Structures are given as C-alpha cells and as structure tokens.
Amino acid sequence: MNNTTIPFNQKRDFGQVFNTTMEFIQQEIKQLGMALLYYVVPIVLLGAIVMVYFSMEYRNFLGDLQQNTMSYGSNPFRMLSSMMGAYTLLLLAFIAVSVVLQATVFGYFKLYIEKGKGGFTLQDIRAQIGRTFLPILGASLVQILFTLIGAVFCILPGIYLGVVLSLLVPVLVIEEKGFSHAFSRSFELIKSNWWLTFGLLLVAGMIVQSIAFILGIPAMAMGFKSLFVNMQNPENLKNFSFPTIFYAYSAITHLITYTLMAFPYCILAVHLFSLKEEKNKISLEDKIEQITNHA
Hints:
Elements: H1 14-68, H2 76-115, H3 122-153, H4 155-164, H5 168-175, H6 179-190, H7 194-231, H8 244-260, H9 262-280, H10 282-294
Helix pairs in contact: 1-2, 1-8, 1-9, 2-3, 2-5, 2-9, 3-4, 3-5, 5-6, 7-8, 7-9
C-alpha cells in the first residue's frame, strides 16, 4: 500500500473538510492545475464560445421577434428552431464540461490514493478520464433525472435527492465497483449526514458563485452602459447589440467560473473519504494491514 502525504481516511467535521481540501489544493496545485489546463480548459473554452454564440442568437431572436410584431413576413418557427439549436449546443457543452471536470478531479483523487503523492503523471490522469468519461456521463444524466423528478413533485424532494446523489460520481470513480454499487452507496453514506453534506455543498457553491459575481461586475457594467446609451435613441434598439469586448470578457469569466467548480468537487472527494471512515473504519483496517505486513 502506498502512503500519501495527506491521510484522507479520517473522520472530519465541517471545518476540517474545508481545511483538508485547501491543504490538498495547495500541495497539488501544480500538477492538478496542469491537468485542468490540459484536459478541462479546452472544453470550457469551447463551452464559452458556444455561450457567446447562444447569447448572439438570443439577441437576434429578440430582434426578429420585435420585427415580427410590425411585419408578418418573418417566420416565427424558423426563428424558434434557430434559438433551440443554439440552446441545445449550450446544453451539450455544459454537460461535456461537467463530465470532464469530474473525471479529472475525482480521477486525480483516485490516483493520489492508489499511487501516492507524485506517483502518477498527466498521462495517467488522461487514461483515467478516458476510462470514466462514459460512466460519469450516464451517472450524471441519472442524477439530473432523479433530481428533476423530485423537484416536479415538490422542491424539497428534489433538493434531498440532489444532495444524496452528489456522491454518485465520486463513489463511481474512486471505488470503481459499478453504477448500482455507487447508487446504493451514495444513500448509505449520506444517511445521518445529509445536513452536513448539504452545508458543504452550499458553502462551496456560494464561494464559487461569489467569485463569479465579482468577476462578472465589469461585464454587467458594460452591458448596462451599452443599453443605456442605445435607449437614448429608440431606433437604435431595433439593431441593438453589446460591444465585442462584452462577449469576450463574458467568455473569460465563464472559463474561470467553470474551472473553479473543481473546488466543490474536491470538497466532495474529501467528504467522501470522511464518510467512508465513519461507516467502515478504513483507517483502522489500514493500520491492521500495516501491522500484519510488518509482522
């Protein structure tokens, strides 16, 4: 068994999970950052381009819709199909970013545990991503489906299932025992720890969204300024569009925000090991194994 610098198999409370996550990120920032740069950032960049395309299509859609109220020559179904096509591309890009990001982060934790600090390369991470991409895609779609079904009946069941199934992908990747095991294991581990998990996800999400909001302030300022200037002349609103720098900056903030989503996933991975220790006393088993091996 390879020893690691950070002993993940320990029961941790709320603050300790955050502290251990920050310690891990500080320790692995170089290699983890390179993995994100090589395997996640290109997909996020593609998603940012699709988002800009969607924004422009939405602007054109609103413009055509406005023209249609004055002239019935436009085809509303054609306008709507163009808009839905852009939205579909945006949705696919979002799913691809989420899957690759989770495969990278949780795969990194799996390799770190199995091979120890510095015991694996970027090629190992790439192989891990390739091996888990489709299973994570399927698990993510199931997670979204169950959460939406719960939300349809009532908001609270949707929130409950969303928190419970937040461990579905990390268990699937790290324990590598199949989907059915990961599904039941998620419910088993969350039992009696739902509020703790909810709190961790809420705070981690708020941290990321707060940073995203701060980064987005310049874009909002540019957008309001452009809109205000064009409102001085109603004729300009017919062909209104934001400046190019607005779309470029929005793409950059989109890129940074999605990359920062690695932080909540790191929180989930550390939390997973804490819950496993509480349920299975893994660290005790490791100590017994070490004593046996040295006997």
